Amino acid sequence: MEKKLLIGNEAVARGLYEAGLRVASSYPGTPSTEITECVAKYDEIYSEWAPNEKVAMEVAIGAAIAGARSFCAMKHVGLNVAADPLFTASYTGINAGMVIAVADDPGMHSSQNEQDSRHYAKASKIMMLEPSDSNECLQYAKLAFELSEKFDTPVILRLTTRVAHSRSLAAISERVDNGLLEYKKDPMKYVMMPGMAIKKHIVVEQRILDQVAWAETAVINTEEINSTDIGVITSGITYQYAKEALGKNASYLKLGCVYPLPVEKIKAFAAKCKKVYVLEELDPFVEEHCKQNGIEVIGKEAFTLQGEYSQSLIKQVILGETDAFTKTDLDIPARPPVLCAGCPHRGLYYALKKLNVTVSGDIGCYTLGALPPLGMVDTCVCMGASVSALHGRNKADAENAKKSVAVIGDSTFMHSGVTGLINIAYNQSNSTVIILDNSITGMTGHQENPTTGKTIKGDPTTAVSLELLARAVGIDRVRVIDPYNLKECEDVLREEIAVDAPSVVISRRPCALLKYVKHNPPMHVNPDKCVGCKMCMKIGCPAISMKNKKSVIDFTQCVGCNVCSQLCKFDAIEEGK
Amino acid sequence: METKSIMIVGVGGQGTLLASRLLGAALLSENYDVKVSEVHGMSQRGGSVVTYVKYGEEVFSPIVREGQADFILAFEQLEAARWLPFLKKGGTMIANSQKIDPMPVVIGNAQYPDGVLDAIRATGADLVEADALTLAVEAGSPKAVNVVLIGVMAARMDLPYEVWEKAIRETVPEKFLEMNLKAFKLGFESAK
């Protein structure tokens, strides 16, 4: 059998392909994005970027009911958005199999919170599998479809960052496509009105009992007996950490299915071991199940609710061993992420800083505008919250409405900003919403969206006009500015913030990292003219630094955007040739 | 054999991901079990980035923690110092002499320390210094720093030269192939 070195997300995509997936719909979100990007490479599968996770999940539900094996992927917070269809799809069940991938981010490498999606499995009463490496990603994706059809339910595949983004070997096989299953009209199954849903809830509860019985003997819930001095109950990436830390010094119960959990199997394993640990990142999900069932285990009291586990943490807590290391006595400055050289968001934030306004922020690259030296984002909660929270702020404190704006990216606006804008128009708040239209979904690594005019496969399609959309919902004042033009930004924003009406300003300039964007030659500083005033440092461009009290521009980073030269009062920053 | 651990550290945008993929491809063709851990998303935007490459008979954890790396390949001096605690006793630090000011330094809230490489050497760590940017420019592009550095490390590893060449062919786009092969060679020869 052929084996390939795949990242977990790629392996999930391969497994879905082999299982005969026919329809996939997702919204990007680190660390889940590459699953759908890889699915899109298979021509046998219809794939798309949806405007948000709720839409994506509903597309998958519709496709599954129509008889196609279907799929949607999202990051942990995306599942909050899709929670509404999730809970009721649990009741309707499916026709052809449906798999939902959700990627949690312990340690918050690229997220705004550290929520544990396993609670969703339990709350929605939907089965959840958790792979620990790329081969399991591939095999569990296939198994998830089988279980989905066996138990008439969507099945969730839970990943964490280290599984989703680690490469390991996965065994590849051929695709088996069973075609489109027949759809039969069945209102008792698919129309969830109270009369039907009451009956379906009974079915759901029985389904969990059936799944528990399955979990008691399932091969993905495996025991590995070595020394019985230490017993470890674990799942996902933590299994890999435990194996490296403890090797043959411990016995393992590895749970490939984290919801529903077996009872007898865990009791039997625990009975064999002198001391039993539950090793799981984030919340004590398995631990609480054990304790509820009277199984004595050590869990969070010895470990942590925050961040990632590792082989070192496990070795230290269980064996009391640490690895020796050395360090310098230097004071090492932090290196936080920054807006890239040439990023169009930079000029816009600089203009906002000059206007000294409160900025209701959102999720995307532009959240980095919160960091010094721009330091211009006041709040960041979730996708779309910039717009609706600005409205709330302005209703609470109308006097200061002329000192506040919202910033939101093009993709985030389509995701859930437009509903907030409708609220601003409908309930008339004096709010200014700035759409940072960089023609792409940036932070997740350049995905197309409904405003870009291209599909996930790069084919041309209709593009939402942000101007017309804003007007259509009832915003009469809509302006477009170029964020590379600082004066224009400042003048237009000043006007729109001052006016007594809701307004939308579209700050439009494609992301500097897009391949089709032509860069100008790098700018350079004329040292004879530079007086070292540091004005050009105020925009926080990573290409600019001070050497010998003069500003210098790093030619490897500069894309010639010309924003810095607009700040220089001495004409010291010259265009490159 | 015991599992070996390599870390590739640098600044988002320097091409550490490609370096880790190239390394993974080379090790795989030598029939090792390989795991490569990457981080995508926010830290790629000019932040401190790290990828882990582990290989051996059977690799479990894809990540490396303090005191566990056999090699650290640092694309930037400050990052070399930042991640030095992850070096195993007796491990080797390969550090590019390039310096990139982090934002707190750019805006004057912090100082880029002097004598970073000397400070690393003073800890007794085995330090290999490389001027990868100069060699990359010589090869044809400042972007080839990553492949130059892989060349420097390859000179200290046991894999045959052809294995590296094959991995480069598998990993980089056709139109940059010659430039990257040259970059690798310059790095490799500089460390001999």
Count the beta strands of chain A: 22
CATH topology of the largest domain in chain A: the name is Rossmann fold
Oligomerization status of the protein chains: heterodimer
Q: Helix coverage percent of residues of chain A?
A: 25-40%
Number of domains of chain B: 1
Q: Return Rg of chain B in Å.
A: 16 Å
Q: Approximately how much helix is present in the residues of chain B? A: 25-40%
Task: State the main characteristics.
heterodimer, A: 577 residues, alpha/beta, Rossmann fold, 5-stranded parallel β-sheet, 22 strands, B: 192 residues, Pyruvate-ferredoxin Oxidoreductase, domain 3, 6-stranded mixed β-sheet, 8 helices, 39% helix, globular
Describe the structure in your own words.
- The complex is a heterodimer of chains A (577) and B (192).
- Chain A is an alpha/beta fold and 577 residues long.
- Chain A has four domains: 3-217, Rossmann fold; 221-319, Rossmann fold; 344-508, Rossmann fold (3-Layer(aba) Sandwich); 524-574, 2-Layer Sandwich (Alpha-Beta Plaits), CATH 3.30.70.20.
- Helix content of chain A is 35%, strand content 17%.
- Chain A contains 19 helices and 22 strands.
- Chain A has a seven-stranded mixed sheet with strand order 3-2-4-5-7-6-12.
- In chain A, strand 2, helix 2 (33-39) and strand 3 (46-49) form a beta-alpha-beta unit.
- In chain A, helix 3 (53-66) runs parallel beside helix 5 and helix 15 (344-355) packs across helix 19.
- Chain A is globular, with a radius of gyration of 27 Å.
- The model of chain A has no long low-confidence stretch (mean pLDDT 97).
- With 192 residues, chain B is α/β, with parallel strands linked by helices.
- The two termini of chain B are 26 Å apart.
- Chain B is globular.
- Chain B has a single domain (4-190), classed as Pyruvate-ferredoxin oxidoreductase, PFOR, domain III (Pyruvate-ferredoxin Oxidoreductase, domain 3, 3-Layer(aba) Sandwich).
- Chain B has a six-stranded mixed sheet with strand order 2-3-1-4-5-6, sandwiched between helices.
- In chain B, helix 2 (77-83) packs parallel to helix 4, helix 5 runs antiparallel to helix 8 (177-190) and helix 6 packs across helix 8.
- The mean pLDDT of chain B is 94.
- In chain B, strand 4, helix 2 and strand 5 (87-96) form a beta-alpha-beta unit.
- Chains A and B meet through strand 8, helix 11 and strand 20 of A and helix 1, strand 2, helix 2, strand 5 and helix 3 of B.
- Strand 8 (166-171) of chain A pairs antiparallel with strand 2 of chain B, so a sheet runs across the interface.
